Amino acid sequence: MLYRKIAEKIENHLKTSSKIMIVDGARQTGKSYIIRHVCKKLFKNYIELNFEEDFEGPGSFQNIHTIQDFYLQLSMLAGEKMGKASDTVIFLDEIQRYPHFFTLLKFLREDNRYTYIASGSQLGMALKNTTSIPVGSIQIEHMYPLDFEEFLMANGFGKEALDILREKYENSVLFDEATDKKLSDLFHKYLLVGGLPDAVKAYVETNNIVEVRRVHRDIMRLYIEDAVKYEKDSGRKLKIRRIYEMIPSNMERQKKRVVVKEIEDKKGKRYDNYIDEFDYLISSGIALGVKAVSTATFPLIEVTGKNLLKLYYNDVGLLTSVLYGNNIRAVLDDKLSVNLGSVYETVVAQELKAHGYALHYYDNKKKGEVDFLIDDYDTSTIVPIEVKSGKDYTVHSAINTFIENEDYAVEKGIVLYNGNELVEKDNVIYYPVYYTMFLSGNDEKDLIF
Question: What is the pTM of this model?
Fold first, then answer.
């Protein structure tokens, strides 16, 4: 099976915490698979309830509002597996389909008859519409597609090898030529495959780009079908599909941000007219939202306010599938005639998000634009990041201006570029772009209620 970092976190939680963990993330990121694997490893009795299937089928749990009614209904389906709290785990999959269960979780936890874990997509939207969030009872963990480290392990890298690489990175020791060549090669393949589990498995098992792209098309079709279903269920005519399909073309613009007037091709439309659509795309995990700031101070969440937004696909493989189809040479050969800027920015956004960073970028009319800003919790400062795919990676006037601004008290800037040297010059560190795998954030302050 594919190694996933979150498995250890789930296992430790089930062994030590009394809170109920809810694993949040986009469809097809492997939530159900990894929860199922860990639960069956730890518990004698494993019970799984899929609320999406129940909603589309018998609706057995649709009107359950008390723990007594829940246990009665559960006993009719899996009574022989209902043992003790120490040996019985109940997995509530797609919990967002029945939002009233968020409230019921509090009482199930207090009853302490069994161990519970849940998963959901569109969790942000569901909690937003929940009248009673069970404070003190749940912990939300976010799950994303495989990051580059997990992709390396899927392709034969051992954890010990990755630990050695990280130690070299922390000590600013450049990798030897053979190691760099191997990592660079696999990184470019990661740009093609991405980190969605089914696509990674298709690549590892077949090395066939046609099979990988088939998986990508199926997943994008699923995302769009979910959006259409959400629009229908909410009774509103939203423009989610249109915004989602605009992401690749927006990425080819100089500023790469969403141009709201083009969503419906109507003048007078503003950012506020599409808040529900943006919320859906980001909360469901199928798009990564990068918020603009014009004044940068630590922590960035306190200065986020501009109604400007960049959207990226949640997985770089989906982007290269749309842009290049089965043409692998455009990415593997880094052809000068092909602009890979949007691809590199997408993979960096994907890595930063998976590593616990909230995503921001700098947009200032007078001082330019910086691709990403991240919080450095060790120094309580902001780190600007520029992503360069071409040979002009040493040209970055915006990041220079940003660093020189005394109000921001910036200690260093990072340029991620398509090369193999590790260089520090004038408070800017130049890293090969795959070094993003070593940047580790603050786990986005896991949501604990």
Answer: 0.93
